[in-house]
Amino acid sequence: MSAYIALALSVGLLAVLDTWLYVGPLAAVLPGLVWISFIAWGCHFHSGGGVKGMTTAIVGMSFGALVGMVAVLLAGGAFAGLGQMAAPVAVGLGAFVICLASRLPLLATIPASVYGFASVAGPVLLAELTPGQAIGPVIGSIIIGALFGIASEYLANAMTAKGAVSAEEAAV
Question: Is the pLDDT of residue 87 over 90?
């Protein structure tokens, strides 16, 4: 089968499993965070796929989530005296840190860190979790999504005819 069809089939089937995990067995631990898993899954492919893409998604997004957690804490704490400017200044500082950190090879893919940074906001703003309560489930969802990314790639490659374009190339 072509890599294009194999990847579509692989991603479609595994998306059912990923979503089921979040509405079923993981619902109490990772409530409503399937969207973070899908962002990490996409980040895996955006970062080139394979072990490198998986590692970039996990490390970059987790780092970004930690920076986002600190930004939320600063906005409600040390920067609270800035009033309406507390959150914008905290976000700006977080963006600055993410860009500086990109000098490190494991954090060189700035979008991965930005995806993680933004992912913390959902559980804090929508589920009213504290930043400390949100970070574990966010990072857990990042790891799950990156694992689904590499699993979908490997499954697609296993279903692809020999000599055809790989799943990584088909995803680009």
Answer: yes
pLDDT for position 65 = 98
Copy the structure tokens of residue 60. Answer: 């970059």
User: Domain span at residue 49?
Assistant: 3-171
Distance CA 35, CA 80 (A): 29
* pLDDT at residue 165 greater than cutoff 80: no
DSSP 52-118: HHHHHHHHHHHHHHHHHHHHHHHHHTTTGGGGGGHHHHHHHHHHHHHHHHTTSGGG--HHHHHHHHH
Tell me the pTM: 0.92
Task: Look at the block and give the residue holding tokens 């970004």.
Answer: 64
Q: Which residues contact 146 (CB under 8 A, 6 or more apart)?
A: 40, 41, 43, 44, 53, 54, 57, 58, 61
- The CA-atom distances, in angstroms, between 162 and each of 98, 111, 117 are 41, 33, 39
Q: How many domains does the chain have?
A: 1
